Amino acid sequence: MEGPFEDDEGGTLSVTIGADAPARLDKALAAAVPEEAALSRSRLIRMIAEGDVSRDGQAVTDPRAKVAEGEVYTLRLAPAIAVETRPEAIPLAVVWEDADLVVIDKPAGMVVHPAPGSPSGTLVNALLHHCGDSLSGIGGERRPGIVHRIDKDTSGLLVVAKSDRAHHGLARQFEDHSVARHYLAVVHGVPSGADPRLRGLRGVGFEPGGILRIATNLARHRTDRQRQAVVWDEGRHAITRARVVEDFAGQAALMDCWLETGRTHQIRVHLAYAGHALVGDQTYGGRRKLPGSLGQGAEIGNAFPRQALHAATLGFDHPVTGERMEFSSPLPEDMEALIGALRGA
Predict the structure, then answer these.
(1) Which residue of 21, 70, 74, 192 is 20 to 30 Å from 57, comparing CA positions?
(2) How far are the Cα atoms of 110, 180, 213 from residue 113, in angstroms, in the given order?
């Protein structure tokens, strides 16, 4: 990927076709564009049809056109347009703020961006009130300041751009995987390099220091469009690393998880695939329960109302000053109570 956003009135995005890209133009672009650009495959197809995708200065209007490794396509993006998202006076836990960005400690239960099922009460509604007009918007739809997301029921840190120059710089860092993101998770079971089941699972391995590495592709589930699934011949490449921080009687573990890529539900999907779903994860955890031998830990864990996942640390280079920024967020009370009960088992 070359520089993702060029500074003209609407903006352009340059995409280089990689070695293992799908053969069709629409599919290849959908796999290659950064998630931060927020370009769905259906939107890409419309852009192709409308002449907004070109190669060597010539528009390519057939979404089924064949592509080749190394080809560079230029996507012309419409200027950001305002949407009917309204400012709301919702309290925010601001960890850092300057003229270009703001770091928020998001509570569990808050949606980041308005959607049909959550038109209000979101982080964006709160930001519009907090920041006024000083939020950036890129990609043909005004998505104020949002460079990355965390799930509604995941708590913790995320950075929001207040200027377009910050948005550009942060998007590049997410694209080249230089942003440091560590999550704390409570999972069923205790992953171990001695487990022959894990060692025999495709895409799963262990690195020095007992670090679990999971590398697969992820795509929308074929029958449940609200879920993601591990796939191999389509989707987007995803790599998660994790290590056990604390073992709770061999029945559960506190894990430090960090992302090389940032796909939707990535940690949740990957750990469930490895057989160690997050406690409280109703989407990927199935009906798995903690055993009664964990006492109150099992009682709290089996009634836990969300996935036990917290975005605990966030690090990046300030997109304007170049200064390295590092932030941390303490565990929220519900996860502290869960871990305390598990320790007491």
Answers:
(1) 21
(2) 9, 22, 30
Percent of the chain with pLDDT over 90: 63
Mean of per-residue pLDDT scores for the chain: 88
Read off the pLDDT of residues 15-73 as tens digits, 9 standing for 90 and up: 999 888 889 999 899 888 876 566 777 789 989 988 999 999 999 999 999 999 999 99
pLDDT tens for residues 133-176? 667 654 444 556 788 889 999 999 999 999 888 888 998 898 88
Query: What pLDDT score does 1 carry?
Result: 27
Catalytic residue among 100, 151, 164, 281: 151
Residue written as token pair 């009664």: 292
Q: Residue 318: count other Cβ atoms within 10 Å of its Cβ.
A: 17
The confidence score (pLDDT) of residue 212 equals 97
Nearest residue to 339 via CA among 267, 275, 245: 245
pLDDT at residue 4 in the model: 32
151 is catalytic: yes
Cβ contact 312:328 at 8 Å: yes
User: Taking a C-beta distance cutoff of 8 angstroms, is the pair 148, 158 a contact?
Assistant: yes
